[in-house]
Amino acid sequence: MIDIHSHILPNVDDGAGSLEEGLRMAERAVNDGIREMVATPHSLDGVYVNCVDEILAGVAQFRCALSANHLDLELHPGGDIHLSTQMVQRIHNQEACTLNNMGKFILLELPSQMIPNGVKDEIFSLKLNGITPIITHPERNLMVQHDPETLYELIGMGALAQVTAMSLTGDFGEFIFHVSERLMKHRLIHVIATDAHSAEDRPPVLSGAVERAADILKSYDEALHMVTQVPAAILSGRTPDIPEPMHVKRTGRTAA
């Protein structure tokens, strides 16, 4: 399996707080069957900067630590990039790292309470410049929770969406699970990732989420596709094979 969203790099954001914690996360990932992982430190969120050069250097150092500890985990560079203005320019200025530093896909983090009016302009600009945004954990966004059609509109513009594994396994609560379930049933989610921040509380584990996704989608192959072929295409800069999204009606608090 491939995990495209993790905070495994030590001492760069609110993820791994030490090299030892990062290595424990790597061991947990390998034991779960994850063979490739993208280190995606927070960027452009007003707290963490993490420019491309810093991330590349951190990944190189951590690869050495993985090898020295005999951990068979392939690590790629990336960034968890908060929505901001002039994103294309900031990416071109090396202020934020694309996935695998390929210049083709980014993880796009939206504010948790809203979807700003300017997001469509930024997505349009990114797509115009050959960059596809992958919206991270939309199931935890207040507007998407109450009106999933807002996510459908962004996907219609060419964005992709990534659900967090712990949302599917119910670790973030029943409501978040039901939102995730609804988005998946309407094919508004394209990839499952861990968004891991630690070895225990927010671990890099995908297997349980794949099982839940298989139950939701009534297809283990479709669920597995979201942690294998889709992320593999993304990391190679290719357009992934994804299902046609479906419209979804607004239902208020009840997400089921």
Radius of gyration: 17 Å
- Let me know the average pLDDT: 96
Number of strands: 9
The number of helical elements comes to 11
Global geometry: globular
List low-pLDDT spans.
none
Strand content: 5-15%
Class from secondary-structure proportions: alpha/beta
Order of neighbouring strands in the sheet with most strands: 3-5-6-7-8-9
The first-to-last residue Cα distance is 28 Å
Helix content: 25-40%
Order of helices and strands: EHEEHEEHEHEHHEHHEHHH
Largest sheet, in brief, is: 6 strands, parallel
3D structure, described in words:
This protein has helices at 19-32, 52-68, 87-92, 119-128, 142-146, 149-156, 165-168, 174-185, 207-217, 220-225, 229-235, and strands spanning 2-6, 36-39, 42-43, 74-77, 80-82, 105-109, 132-136, 160-164, 191-193. With 256 residues, the protein is α/β, with parallel strands linked by helices. A six-stranded parallel sheet has the order 3-5-6-7-8-9, sandwiched between helices. Strands 1-2-4 form a three-stranded parallel sheet, sandwiched between helices. Helix 4 links the parallel strand 6 and strand 7. The model has no long low-confidence stretch (mean pLDDT 96).
